[in-house]
Write a structure and sequence with these properties.
The protein is mainly α. It has one domain. It has six helices and no strands. The chain has helices at residues 2-21, 26-33, 42-61, 83-99, 103-111, 115-134.
């Protein structure tokens, strides 16, 4: 129960950060991605701030024997960059560039009443299900 409550609080805090930074605004995100036109660099500051915060927190947290609400850390087993990772990153980038939404920001934008975010999340879930159907049993 405490783990679920902790996840909910962290998700709400993350969503509030996305709303305040306006990363839920597709027009602002698309202006950030348009480096050859009217580039709007403010989201770079949001990303740099997030990386600095994560970097400092990670150094402190990883020194612990285990997380507060788990028996061990769940870190990736491999750091290998393979074709599946590159294709997935490319598809993610294309979707982000076409829509102005990434998954977390789209979910936060639904809470802000954006219909296009709801449509994006629906399409994203359809894509996830399609992948599972195609790769079932592999």
């Amino acid at each position: 129960m405490l783990k679920n409550l902790s996840s909910l609080v962290c998700g709400i805090l993350f969503g509030i950060g996305l709303l305040i930074s306006e990363m839920v605004n597709p027009m602002k995100v698309l202006a950030f991605l348009d480096i050859t036109g009217q580039w709007y660099p403010s989201l770079a500051l949001v990303m740099v701030g997030a990386l600095i915060t994560f970097g400092l927190a990670y150094r402190l947290i990883i020194r612990r024997r285990a997380p507060l609400l788990e028996d061990r850390f769940h870190l990736p087993d491999s750091a290998k960059i393979d074709t599946k990772l590159l294709i997935g990153a490319g598809i993610f980038g294309i979707g982000w560039g076409l829509s102005g939404f990434c998954p977390g920001a789209a979910i936060a934008a639904i809470g802000n009443g954006r219909l296009e975010a709801l449509l994006f999340v629906f399409a994203m879930c359809c894509g996830i299900d399609l992948f599972r159907i195609i790769h079932r049993g592999k």
